[in-house]
């Protein structure tokens, strides 16, 4: 990061990584939920399904944040956003 500013490329990379982690968490939670279903452990399965849904929601919010960053125009003299 730059002092007194933001490096937009660093933000994009960080958000992209968070999106990918959220997608992976969603996929894993869904897989474990299916296994819990097969084992008839309904409470665990339900919680894992909920966790997967929340991870998918987080990924969607992060994707929206990425779009905001792509289209952000700022007019603050004290903030400098740079692209590499």
Describe the main β-sheet briefly: 2 strands, parallel
Number of strands: 2
Radius of gyration: 18 Å
Strand order of the largest sheet: 1-2
Measured by DSSP, the beta-strand proportion falls in 5-15%
Order of helices and strands: EHHE
Average pLDDT confidence is 86
Give the end-to-end Cα distance, rounded to a whole number of Å: 11 Å
Helix proportion range: over 70%
Q: What structural class is derived from the secondary structure elements? A: mainly alpha
Dominant shape: elongated
Number of helices: 2
Number of domains: 1
What are the segments in which pLDDT stays under 50 over at least 5 consecutive residues? none
**Oligomer type:** single chain
Key terms:
2 strands; 84 residues; 2 helices; two-stranded parallel ribbon; elongated; mainly alpha; single chain
């Amino acid at each position: 990061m730059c002092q007194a500013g933001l490096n937009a490329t660093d933000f994009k990379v960080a958000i992209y990584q968070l999106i990918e982690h959220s997608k992976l968490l969603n996929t894993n939670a869904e897989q474990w939920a299916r296994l819990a279903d097969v084992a008839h452990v309904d409470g665990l399965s339900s919680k894992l399904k909920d966790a997967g849904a929340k991870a998918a929601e987080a990924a969607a919010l992060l994707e929206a944040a990425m779009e905001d960053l792509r289209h952000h125009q700022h007019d603050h003299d004290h903030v400098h956003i740079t692209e590499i």
